[in-house]
TrEMBL record:
This is Integrase.
Length: 117
């Protein structure tokens, strides 16, 4: 059987995590490494720091709202989050909600393949 060689994709979490170290609670470390890798991808695309910070804050906010990590999100969690943002005293606009879906709130963004694990 041919062994597949692992390739570290640009921005993958494995490029931030330390080799040969197994954390006691790996998910928080993977989450932070994933966000750092994603921020790095955005910096090399010359996005402004403020833009990157807003996107990271959005992903963290969604994670707090759902109580889950991005690789665990389903469409229903994202729908509940967007619905929550659209209600209340300062509802977001439809265009803002659509923009959020392209800025890290797509469950397909956070698969093992995109995380490099």
């Amino acid at each position: 059987m041919q062994r597949m060689e692992r390739v570290d994709l640009p921005g993958s979490a494995r490029m931030v995590l330390v080799d040969n170290v197994v954390p006691l609670d790996p998910e928080p470390q993977l989450f932070e490494a994933m966000l750092e890798g994603w921020a790095r991808q955005q910096r090399v695309r010359y996005l402004k720091k403020e833009t990157i910070d807003r996107r990271l804050a959005l992903v963290r906010r969604m994670s707090r709202f759902s109580g889950q990590y991005p690789w665990q999100w389903t469409a229903s969690e994202i729908e509940a989050f967007i619905d929550d943002l659209r209600s209340g005293s300062h509802p977001i606009k439809v265009s803002t909600a659509r923009g959020h879906l392209g800025r890290g709130l797509d469950p397909g963004c956070w698969t093992p393949e995109t995380l490099g694990s």
